[in-house]
Amino acid sequence: MVEKFKGNKLDPTQVLILGFASVIFIGAILLNLPFASITGKSIGFLDALFTSTSAVCVTGLVVVDTGTYWTAFGKTVILILIQIGGLGFMTMATLFAIVLGKRTSLKERLIMQEALNQNTLSGLVRFTQYILIGTLVIEGIGAILLSTRFIPQLGLSKGLAFSIFHSISAFCNAGFDIVGGGVSLIPYVSDPVVNITIMLLIIFGGLGFPVIVELIRTRNFKKISLHAKIVLFMTALLISMGFFAFMALEWNNPNTIGELDFGSKVLASAFQSVTPRTAGFNTIEMSQLTNASKLLTIILMYIGGSPASTAGGIKTVTFGVILFTIISVIKGKEDTELFGRRLSRFAVNRALTLGVVGMGLIIFITMALTISDGGFTFMEVLFEGVSALGTVGLSLGITSKLSELGKVIIIIAMFIGRLGPLTIAFALATQQRKNKGTIRYPEEKIIVG
Amino acid sequence: MVEKFKGNKLDPTQVLILGFASVIFIGAILLNLPFASITGKSIGFLDALFTSTSAVCVTGLVVVDTGTYWTAFGKTVILILIQIGGLGFMTMATLFAIVLGKRTSLKERLIMQEALNQNTLSGLVRFTQYILIGTLVIEGIGAILLSTRFIPQLGLSKGLAFSIFHSISAFCNAGFDIVGGGVSLIPYVSDPVVNITIMLLIIFGGLGFPVIVELIRTRNFKKISLHAKIVLFMTALLISMGFFAFMALEWNNPNTIGELDFGSKVLASAFQSVTPRTAGFNTIEMSQLTNASKLLTIILMYIGGSPASTAGGIKTVTFGVILFTIISVIKGKEDTELFGRRLSRFAVNRALTLGVVGMGLIIFITMALTISDGGFTFMEVLFEGVSALGTVGLSLGITSKLSELGKVIIIIAMFIGRLGPLTIAFALATQQRKNKGTIRYPEEKIIVG
Ligand SMILES: [K+]
Ligand SMILES: [K+]
C-alpha cells in the first residue's frame, strides 16, 4: 500500500475514476440515512446508490420523485453531489488546494488536465479559477432570473430554494427537479422566463469552459480556435435542426404540443431540442412523443454536449469530426478538412473510435436491459440505456419500475457514460502503455467493405 | 451524349450502379406482366419493382408470397435476377465477353476489379472463370443434396425445381423461398439435411470467392493471407457466439425453440445464427423471438458476410478491423495489429468510416420508416430497415403491410445496401477526385471526446 502511493503507481485517469467512485459511495451512504427520506425510513442501499450515481454523474434518472421523496437534508446532499459532479471531482480537489494556499503540484495539474481534457499544462490553475467564478456567476444569474417566477409563485424561502436548485441542476446538465410528482418542468411548458433561462443555462453548461472563456476574450468568430468554431457550429446546427424537426414531427400530436398555442409550440420544440444534450428536463410527456421524435431524441442524446463541459454523450466535436470525415471521404479527399483547417489522423481516428465505441456501449447496455427487464418494449429500454450512457436523464417512464439487475445496469451505464469510454479504456491499459514494445509488425493489405 | 461515351466520362462505380439499376428495371417490367402473376392480372409497378430490387439485391424481402403468387414464368424471372445479382452484374458482363471470345479490355477488367473489390488487376479473367465454375459446382452439389429430401416429398419435377431454386437462393444469400404461405423454411426446422445443406450454402456464399479459392489452393491456416485469416476467424467467431447466444436466449421461449427436442433446438439455434449474415431464410417465427434475440439478429445483420461475396452488411473484415482497432486503442497501441500483422491507416480509417456510415444509414432509414409507417412498433421498423440495408430479408412480418412510401424507402435501402455506401459515395465524388486540389490546409489541434 505504502509502496503503491510512494511509487505513484496510479495514473491520473485511475485517480479520477477512484475519486468519482468515492464521492458516489459517500453520497449513497448519506442518502441511505433514515432522515434523508421523508418517510423516516432508509431507502435501501441500491436505490441510494442509484440516486447518488445519477447526481454525481449529472444524469437525472430517478427511482423516486426527488421533490416529494427526499427531506431538505436529502435534497441538499443531492444538490452538493450534482455540483461536485458538474464541476468535476478533480477540479474541486485542485480548487481546495488553491483555497488552502497550497501550491498545486505537477501531478495535481496533470490530473486536472485529464479531468478537463485540456491540451496544455500551462494556465491550468488560472483556468480553474475561471471555472469556479464563472460557475457561481452564471448559476447566480440563473437563480435570480428563475426567482422572478418561483418567489411570487411559491413564497420567498421555497421560491429561492427552487430557483437555486434548478439553476444549479440546469447549468450542471443534471436534470434533477424538485417540482414534485415526477413531472419535471411540464407545468412550465408555456412559461417563457423559466424555459429560456433553463435553456440558456443548459446551453452554457454544455458548451464547456474553454469555449466560454474564449468567447469572453475574443468576440470575433474568425479569430477563435478551430475547437471553439466546431463547438459553436455544431451546437447551433444541432439545436436549430432539432427545433425544426421536433416542431414538424409533433405539430399535430395532441398528447404533446398539438393542443398548445403557437408560442408554446415554439417554446416546447426549442426546449425539446435543447434538453436531450444532455440536460434531462422535459416540458412535455416523453412517452407520448411519436416514434420519430423518440429516435431523434436518442440521436441527440448520443451526440450530447461539448468536451470539457458538464454535458455527456460522444460530444459535439467528436460528431463534427465524424461528419466532416464522411464528407471528406465522399469528396474523395484524404484529409478531414473543416473551416480551412486540416485535422490530424490521430484526432480523426479517436473521433471515429469514440463514435463506434459509443454505439457499441449502447448496444451492450440495451442488450443487457432486454435480458434483465424483458417486460418493457424495445424502445423503452433503448431510450433508457442511451439516456444513462449520455448522462441525460430523460426516460419513457420505466426507471422506477426497473428490476434490481436493471438498476445495477443503469448505474454502470451512468458511471461509464460520465467518465468516458476512452478514459476508462486508457486507465485499464496503463500497464500495457508503460511496457509499450518497440516491435512493429509488418503491414499487410486487406479488403475492407 | 456521344461526347460522354467517347470521353469515357463514366467511371467503373457509375457503370456498376447504372448496370444494377437497369437489370432491376428490366426485372420489374417482366414481373409486372400479367402472366407473371397467378391471378393473371398485373401486380402493379411498385410491387414489381420491389420484388425485382429484392431479387437483384439478393435481399429476400417480399410483398407477396413467392411460392403461391408468381407463375412458373415469374419464379424463373426471380431466380435469374437472383443469379445475376449474386454473381454480380459486372462479373456477368465480363463472363459474356469471355464466352463470346472477345478479349477483355483494360476498362472491363477495371470494372471487374471494382465489382469484386480485388486489389490487383492480374489474373482477374481466370478469377472470373473460377467464380462461374465454382458457383455452378457448389449450387449443383447443394441442389443434389436438397433433392434427396424434396423429390421424395414433392415428386420429381416439383422436387427438382424446389432443390434448384433453394440451392441458388441460399448460395446467393438471397433468402427467397417457394415453400408457399410465407413461412420460409419453418416446416423444415427439424430436418438436418435441409438445415445443414442450406447453412453450408449460405456460409460458402458469404465467405467470398477470394477466400474460397485461397482455401482450395492453400490448406494451411498459417500460410493463407491476412484477409482470409480475418474472414475465417470472424466468421467462426460470429457463428459460434450467435449460436450459443440464441440457444441461451430462446431455450425457454415456447413460441420459438422452447417446445422442440434437444437436437432441433441445436439445429434451429445454429440456423438462426447463420441466417442473419445475410441469407434471410428462417426456421422459426421471427416475430416471436425475445427482444434480446431480435437485437442480436439486428447486430448480425448489420455485420453481414465477407467482402467480394454474395452477402451484404458492413462485412466481417470491416467489423474485425473495428474490433481489433478498439482493442489496440485500449492496449494503448498506435497501430491496429492482428495475427502478427499491422494494418495501414487507410484500411483502419475506411473500416471505421464504413462502420459509422452503416450506423448512420440505419438511423436515416429507420427514421424515414417511423414517419412513413407510424403504426408499427419501433422494433418492427428498425428490424425491417436493417434487414433491407444488410440485404438480409428477415422481417417481423410488416413488409407486405408497408405504405407505398414505406415500400419506396425499403427499395432505396436495398439498393444502397447492395452497392455499398462507399461505392455510391465514391461514384458521387468522381468529379471532385478528378479535380483533386493540391492545396493542403494547415493542421490544427482540437479536443475530441
Ligand atoms: K443530465
Ligand atoms: K438475403
Write the layout of secondary structure elements.
2 copies of one chain form a homodimer.
Chain A: H1 2-6, H2 12-31, H3 45-56, H4 66-69, H5 72-87, H6 89-99, H7 106-116, H8 124-154, H9 156-171, H10 192-207, H11 209-217, H12 226-250, H13 262-274, H14 291-303, H15 316-330, E1 337-338, E2 341-342, H16 345-372, H17 378-389, H18 404-419, H19 421-428, H20 430-434
Antiparallel strand pairs in A: 1-2
Helix pairs in contact in A: 2-3, 2-5, 2-7, 2-19, 3-5, 3-18, 5-6, 5-9, 6-7, 6-8, 8-9, 8-10, 9-10, 10-13, 11-12, 12-13, 12-14, 12-15, 14-17, 15-16, 16-17, 16-18, 17-18
The structure holds potassium ion (2 copies).
Q: How much strand content do the residues of chain A show?
A: under 5%
Mean pLDDT of chain A: 82
| H/I helix tally of chain A | 20
N-to-C order of helices and strands of chain A: HHHHHHHHHHHHHHHEEHHHHH
Radius of gyration of chain A, in Å, reads 22 Å
Number of strands of chain A: 2
Number of domains of chain A: 1
Strand order of the largest sheet of chain A: 1-2
Distance between the termini of chain A: 50 Å
The percentage helix of chain A is 55-70%
Silhouette of chain A: globular
Q: Which blocks of ≥5 consecutive residues of chain A have pLDDT under 50? A: 1-7, 93-104, 429-438
Identify every distinct bound molecule in the structure, by name, code or SMILES: potassium ion
SS-derived structural category of chain A: mainly alpha
Which chains make the largest contact?
A-B, 83 and 83 residues
Task: Note the main sheet of chain A.
Answer: 2 strands, antiparallel
Oligomeric organization of the protein chains: homodimer
